Amino acid sequence: MQNNETAPFWETKTLEELTPQEWEALCDGCGLCCLNRLQDEDDDTAPIYLTRVACHCYDINAGQCSDYANRFKRVEGCMGLTLERVAEYDWLPETCAYRLRHQGKPLPSWHPLITKNRNTVRPHGMHALNPVLESDDLELEDYIVDTFSDDL
Ligand code: SF4
Ligand code: SF4
């Protein structure tokens, strides 16, 4: 058993206590937050539907944003996660590492911080949904998918 001095930061620290580097490392790279969502624009209490249409700036083959450093300039709707937003965004996937730690839950066994392998996230992230890249001729309604709810 590990004590607090030897246990990794993602087990011992709260989100508030993470350094900027640890905050970045916590992301599992699932890409689920880079998928388009649909909601009735006149009702912000309406259900939010996940689609398998990835942001046009996402590199599906590489499994990451194609321009992470400039993402906020490139895509109007791209919003970085902050402490406040993790608490606020109830549409984040249940597997999102920030959501889990905000709820005081452990990371799943497939998280790359635990496996030391970025590819272990693929069966649990965007790639499991057979994503397509956003384009003008796609109707998002045709690409609605179920969220992962029991994947931890
Ligand atoms: S859903 Fe969470 S863990 Fe997955 S890519 Fe987005 S921020 Fe990272
Ligand atoms: S700009 Fe990059 S990080 Fe932002 S939603 Fe698009 S792919 Fe994801």
What does this protein structure show overall?
This protein is α+β, with helices and mostly antiparallel strands and 152 residues long. It has one domain (9-143). It is 20% helix and 11% strand. It has 6 helices and 5 strands, in the order H-H-E-E-E-E-H-H-H-H-E. A 3-stranded mixed beta sheet has the order 1-2-5, with no helix packed on it. A two-stranded antiparallel sheet has the order 3-4. The longest helix has 7 residues, at 20-26. The mean pLDDT is 92. The structure holds iron/sulfur cluster (2 copies). Residues 27-33, 81, 92-93, 96-98 line the site of one iron/sulfur cluster.
What descriptors fit this protein?
single chain; 152 residues; alpha+beta; three-stranded mixed beta sheet; binds iron/sulfur cluster
User: Ligands in the structure?
Assistant: iron/sulfur cluster
- What class, by secondary structure content? alpha+beta
| Spans of at least 5 consecutive residues with low confidence | none
Provide mean pLDDT, rounded: 92
What string, H for helix and E for strand, traces the elements in order? HHEEEEHHHHE
Widest sheet: strand order?
A: 1-2-5
Question: How much of the polypeptide forms β-strand, as a percent range?
Answer: 5-15%
Quick one: how many beta strands? 5
The rough form would be described as globular
* Rg estimate, integer Å: 16 Å
What profile does the largest beta sheet have?
Answer: 3 strands, mixed
Q: Which range best describes the helical content: under 10%, 10-25%, 25-40%, 40-55%, 55-70% or over 70%?
A: 10-25%
Number of domains: 1
> Helical region count?
6
Distance between the termini: 22 Å
